[in-house]
Specification:
Length: 467
């Protein structure tokens, strides 16, 4: 290792150690600080191994890539450092903000609220760390099992804790559950688990399959087959968001449902914004129906003060009759044939709910089944750097199988597979070295992540979800 590389590794270790000293000996009455101390220790261990992995490569694919000039050693190391910096950013933000006394009091309040919500669930999940950022979001990093939830400061800035709006936390915890909940078959019965990668994949595949089958029965009859396919694809893209709202309503009850009014007023000033489909979240006008359905099973209409809310703020007399444009993709300015990229549905809120609310019912029933049957002590999940290594190992095994299959066919076919294998191997290192791919691909993490690796909805490595 050259002197510059050694200096980089030493500086990384010193920086993390400085922060560890600030939080290492916090008293028991400072649970968030003690949790942060654990996360800092985890990051220090992870960072040392992560940098060693890329600064002293012993992995066969990396060595081959370097030998064939597919990537230079300097570029490999630069991108590894950039990735590690992205991982550090959220930890550093939490550590820095907790040094401000006023901030610490507010953040402690948020951590306490999150703990109260988590205690309504039977799962062995660590509490979350809270920090301020420009939007509500949750992030899970590969070096710790503790997720990070951020909030805009103005939601929680009030000196009176009773006036602080922490109701986005239940929704973010819904994502936390979605990333970790799984099941395995034991003696013909489902055993629910937390933290096991294979079990999580199994459950998410089942949810996708069951919802797909359910939608074939519940989609509006007056749609063409193509329109039904598009609506089904949209609702499947919303699945995790719907799940998070189901869990959030279970945890936050009526207060969580009503807090959506503040979210809507902050984000939507016009009907167009209220009805906007971003491809990842159900439109804001649909989300009250989702939360209302959990509080009032079988209710297809809004209850409480929602009618007055939409009337007073958006001039809507009949919310269910409003027409939404769904699935509309904005074309690239350079595309000549703009009409080819404009694919959308025009459906009423009632028509969309005809398909969405049965999905809400299904997910709610699944959650109730899990909560009533979840066994204790099943947290056997993978942690820290093991996840990244598993990712590369999985891809390596998959490519080996493709090569073996190709060898049994004609030489032309084999050469084509070799090209595919090289592309897939490069994909692995794109994923390992670029956290942004894991976080925000295709405007939503799991979409590009799934396409990139051929592994659908795998959230364990590094993920940012925006509320």
């Amino acid at each position: 290792m050259i002197a510059k590389e050694r200096h980089i590794l030493n500086e990384h270790a010193r920086n993390v150690n400085r922060w560890q000293k600030l939080y290492r000996d916090e008293p028991e009455e400072q649970p968030a600080d003690r949790l942060l101390a654990t996360v800092l220790a985890d990051f220090a261990e992870f960072g040392e191994e992560y940098l060693d992995y890329f600064f002293n490569p012993r992995d066969e694919e990396i060595e081959q890539a370097l030998a064939t000039n597919k990537i230079t050693r300097q570029r490999l190391q630069a991108r590894a450092l950039n990735a590690l910096q992205d991982y550090w950013d959220v930890v550093g933000r939490v550590a820095e903000q907790r040094q401000v006394t006023h901030y610490r009091e507010i953040l402690d309040d948020g951590t306490s609220r999150a703990k109260d919500f988590l205690e309504k669930l039977p799962f062995e999940l660590p509490n979350v760390l809270i920090c301020f950022d420009n939007v509500w979001k949750i992030r899970h990093a590969p070096f710790t099992d503790t997720p990070f939830i951020s909030t805009p400061y103005f939601y929680v800035a009030d000196d009176d804790p009773a006036e602080r709006d922490w109701y986005a936390i239940p929704h973010e915890l819904g994502h936390y559950v979605y990333w970790n909940l799984g099941f395995r078959q034991v003696d013909g019965e489902r055993q629910w688990t937390i933290g096991n990668l294979a079990d999580v994949r199994r459950l998410q595949d089942v949810l996708q399959s069951d919802v797909t089958e359910l939608l074939t029965q519940k989609l509006p009859d007056d749609l063409t087959p193509e329109q039904k396919d598009l609506l089904q694809a949209l609702i499947l893209a919303w699945l995790e968001e719907i799940f998070a709202d189901v869990v959030g309503t279970h945890l936050g009850d009526a207060g969580f449902a009503e807090s959506l009014q503040t979210v809507i007023l902050n984000r939507a000033g016009t009907f167009k914004e209220l009805a906007e489909d971003d491809g990842n979240h159900p439109p804001l006008i649909i989300r009250p129906f989702i939360r209302n359905r959990i509080l009032n099973p079988e209710a297809a209409e809004l209850t409480g003060n929602w009618h007055a809310f939409f009337k007073d703020n958006f001039g809507l007399d009949d919310v269910a009759a409003q027409v939404l444009k769904l699935g509309e993709r904005i074309p690239d300015e350079e595309v000549e044939d703009l009409s080819a990229d404009l694919i959308h549905l025009e459906l009423t809120v009632a028509q969309v709910n005809q398909a969405v609310l049965p999905v809400v019912d299904y997910l709610h029933q699944q959650l109730k089944t899990v909560l009533s049957n979840y066994p204790a002590n099943t947290n056997d999940g993978l942690t820290r750097f093991t996840r990244l290594r598993l990712l590369a190992q999985e891809k390596r095994e998959a490519t080996k199988k493709k090569i073996q299959a190709a060898k049994q066919s004609a030489r032309e076919a084999a050469s084509e597979v070799v090209v595919d294998v090289r592309n897939e191997v490069e994909d692995v290192y794109e994923t390992l070295l670029q956290p942004r791919i894991l976080e925000r691909g295709y405007q939503h993490t799991h979409n590009l992540y799934g396409y990139h690796l051929g592994i659908r909805r795998l959230h364990f490595y590094d993920y940012t979800h925006y509320h």
